[in-house]
User: Which sequence fits this backbone?
């Protein structure tokens, strides 16, 4: 990888043609930076071993929790603490950056058809 060239989040995310399918754009130590497009509802899940950071680049993301929800708009971020059950959703398409440790499964232990392959680079 050429370390002398900057990455443009939106240029990378525009290469993605599926929703809920994160793609790695960079790594730092054991963490991956992933871009993803979201639309509609995801599933309830948690990550028992790690926090998960959502940074919205375009649109507005809703993350439901069992005791409420948070709305995250473009230019904002939210960190879901490890072990907290959550369900992301987007009424309109959302483009975002995820930061999480390498190997984290997007559906946690829930699995299912929305489980994305890990370590897919774009």
Assistant:
């Amino acid at each position: 990888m050429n370390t002398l060239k900057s990455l443009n989040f939106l240029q990378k995310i525009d290469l993605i043609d599926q929703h809920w399918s994160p793609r790695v754009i960079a790594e730092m130590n054991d963490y991956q930076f992933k871009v993803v497009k979201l639309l509609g509802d995801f599933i309830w899940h948690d990550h028992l071993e790690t926090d998960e950071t959502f940074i919205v680049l375009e649109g507005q993301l809703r993350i439901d929790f069992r005791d409420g929800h948070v709305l995250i708009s473009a230019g904002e971020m939210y960190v879901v603490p490890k072990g907290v059950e959550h369900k992301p959703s987007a009424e309109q398409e959302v483009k975002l950056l995820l930061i999480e440790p390498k190997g984290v499964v997007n559906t946690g232990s829930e699995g299912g058809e929305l489980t994305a392959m890990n370590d897919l680079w774009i």
Q: What stands out?
A: The longest helix spans residues 9-13.
